[in-house]
Amino acid sequence: MMHSTNFPIGIFDSGVGGTSIWKEIVTLLPNENTIYLADSKNAPYGEKAKKEIIELAIKNTEFLLKQHCKIIVVACNTATTNAVKTLRQNYDVPFIGIEPAIKPAALSTKTNVVGILATKGTLNSELFESTSSIFKEKITIIETIGKGLVDLIENGKIISPEMTHLLVSYLNPMLKENVDCLVLGCTHYPYLIPQIRKIVGEKMQIIDAGLAVAKQTKAILEKNNLLQTSIQKGKHQLFSNSNIKVLEMLVGNQIAFTEIKKRNF
Length: 265
Ligand code: DGL
Fold this sequence. Notes:
With 265 residues, this protein is α/β, with parallel strands linked by helices. It has eleven helices and ten strands. The relative contact order is 0.20. Residues 13-15, 17-18, 43-46, 76-78, 119, 122, 150, 186-188 line the site of D-glutamic acid.
């Protein structure tokens, strides 16, 4: 299939969290056009069965392909770890995924205890299991399901007593176990960094893979001769199939030529 370099980069997530990746991509590749899908109507994916996550990932991919996206970024750890293999088998475009960044944490830790906060769907996936088993001989990995965090973010309750309560209950046990590197294994969680910092202090390293995903997107576009050649600033369309208020709150008008709309998909 022929792809014009001018065609957009397609990005999807179960909801608003993947905008943390979208921002990294738009910052690194300011001339690229993008389309972002927030499948907020079906969020969270993290508690769903693998089969359903695959069906939702296919639905999102088909929507983006109808808009002629030249590459698809699965800006969701849960969808990547459960569905990216199927997507790569079924479609002809390049896919970029995101997985919890265990390797950089394993290389950085001094206490040899690393914490991972992610969804149940990510932590229970075969892909996560096989990646983490490589490191489990050398380091201790404390895996914690961030149950409830995505729901609160989707409802705009990023700064709220409920959020503080949940974060304290997930992070205090990690502090007790001497975790010195915390991997954020969900694209919603970078929005919680200021609050996480308040709980864990300044010493713990917080690792997320957003910039690495943006760099990988650039590298794969380059490799496939798909990088935008225009020097105009890119145009961005963000669609949510639920309330767009939280998307507006997180993205606002931080980046020029950005439209946020409600759309059924
Ligand atoms: N942003 C998704 C992720 O990275 C959230 C998953 C969910 O919807 O539960 O895993």
